[in-house]
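WARN retry 2 of 3 for item q-0093 after timeout on previous attempt; input resubmitted unchanged.
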Amino acid sequence: MTHAQLPIVFVDFNNSDRLGRVRLNTVGTAQDLNRLGIVLSEGTEMTLRSFELEAKGTTTYSSEEGIWVAAVDWDNILELPGNQLP
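OK item q-0093 returned
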C-alpha cells in the first residue's frame, strides 16, 4: 500500500512520547479511527496528519504508558499548505 492509499488519521505531533512516537489518544484521533473503522493492532500503517504536517506512521502498543502510539517516519514528514484535514 502506498503512502497515498493509507487511511488518514488526525494526530497531534506535539503529543509524543520520549521515543518520538505520537500518542494516538486525542479526541480527533479517536474520531477518525472510529469513522474509518480502524481497530488498532501492531504494525497498522496509516497517514498521520495534523493541520500543517503529514507523515507515515506505524502503530505499536506502549506498555509503558498503556496506550497505542505510532512510530513516525520523521525523515519524510511533509509540510502541507493551509488546513488539510480530511
